[in-house]
Each structure stands twice: as C-alpha cells, then as structure tokens.
Amino acid sequence: MAMTTTEADKILSANFAPWVLDLGLTVEGLGEDRAVLRLPWSDRLAREGGGLSGQALMAAADTATVIAVSAARGGFVPMTTVQQSTSFQRAVTGSDVLIEAVLTKLGRRMAFADITLSEASSGALAARASTVYAILG
C-alpha cells in the first residue's frame, strides 16, 4: 500500500531534529520513487540581500531524500547521508520552494537520488542536488 502524505508528515515530525522541523517543510506529494516537499518562504531563512539561504535549501533536499526512500520502502528505516552535492542556479526571494527528490537507484543498503528545487510561484529552477544514502535498517 502506498504511503500517504499524512504518514510522510508524521515521519518528518518523529525523526528529524528540531531545527529541521523549524524549516516548516510539508509533504506535497509521493510516488513509488519520489517525494515532493514544500519549503515555505520565511524571512528567517533569508540571508543578506533577501535570498533564501543555501543551508535551508540543502537541508530541504536532504530531508526530501529521506521521505522519498521511506515512501519507496513503505515506511521509515534508519538511514544516513553519505554524500550530497548541490548546485545553485538562481536566488529564491519571496517564494515557497518545491523540492522533488527522485530515486535513481534503491538497493538494500544504498539509495541514490536526484533533487530539483524550484520556485513554487514561477516554477523556475533554483537548484539541483544529488544525494547518496546508506540504509541502516
């Protein structure tokens, strides 16, 4: 049975550090190999010049990978980031960000994902990331 967004939101609230929860991420959609999260715009996450901080975007990409792996496996299991690479393409100002993590390979002990981060208001691509995760459970 496919995971619901409500179940995925519960994974967020039960398994992430308080500072990650402070980002306000919500699960917008799930598929068998993907997850879409929303990072709401907040002045608290903006850096000088008004752009959303790269740290917030990278944390959102990392978190989206956990939700995508959980959706693909049918529930949360302990896992940890092995590698993350992010390329920023444009500043995000005054807009929520949609983060789509797509699993490119899911094995028993490793998962690989490509992530796109786009402005929710315009659809413009803000960043791309790739992640590698070790599945511990």
User: How would you sum up the major sheet?
Assistant: 6 strands, antiparallel
Distance between the termini: 20 Å
Query: Which bin fits the share of residues in helices?
Result: 25-40%
What is the 3D form? globular
Total E-strand runs: 6
Q: Structural class given helices, strands, pairing?
A: alpha+beta
The tally of helices reads 3
Radius of gyration using CA atoms only: 14 Å
The H/E string reads: HHEEHEEEE
Mean pLDDT rating: 96
The fraction of residues in strands falls at 35-45%
> What spatial order of strands do you see in the largest sheet?
1-2-4-5-6-3
Taking pLDDT < 50 over at least 5 consecutive residues as the criterion, the unreliable ranges are: none
Task: Name the features.
six-stranded antiparallel β-sheet, alpha+beta, 137 residues, 3 helices
What is the secondary structure topology, with strand pairs?
Blueprint: H1 5-15, H2 18-21, E1 26-31, E2 34-39, H3 54-73, E3 79-88, E4 97-106, E5 110-119, E6 125-135
Antiparallel strand pairs: 1-2, 2-4, 3-6, 4-5, 5-6
